[in-house]
Design brief:
The protein is 75% helix and 0% strand. The model has no long low-confidence stretch (mean pLDDT 89). The chain has five helices and no strands. The chain is mostly helical.
Length: 121
């Protein structure tokens, strides 16, 4: 994957996260019910998006340092939770920031394992 594709993928994930953060709570609940999905699907989606962003940022061609990724993601998690004050029927939770950070750590571990595996070839 080249740098341009990596940056586009990171931007797409960021856009999806920010748009999803502003969805009114009633719409989100209705969507979950329509899909017959478990109530924790939103938290799982956050986990996956943050894991994906961490993986893209950690692997080549971007290869950001881990400290930079963790700081950027922490700021992003705080921002997205803070933006929920502006969304109808949405409320920020510290637990969600923890879920976002756990996704980030999982993404960093997967990126490290992927780099080790690909590097050994």
């Amino acid at each position: 994957m080249n740098r341009r594709v990596s940056e586009a993928l990171l931007g797409f994930q960021l856009l999806a996260l920010l748009v999803g953060t502003q969805v009114p709570g009633a719409w989100r609940s209705e969507g979950v019910q329509m899909l017959h999905a478990p109530s924790y699907i939103s938290s799982f989606a956050h986990f996956l998006i943050f894991a994906g962003m961490a993986m893209v940022a950690a692997m080549r061609p971007l290869a950001w340092p881990v400290k930079r990724i963790l700081l950027a993601v922490l700021l992003l998690a705080l921002l997205t939770e803070g933006l929920q004050f502006l969304a109808v029927d949405r409320h920020p939770r510290w637990l969600d920031i923890g879920i976002d950070m756990a996704g980030t750590v999982a993404g960093l571990v997967l990126a490290r394992l992927g780099s080790s595996f690909l590097g050994s070839r």
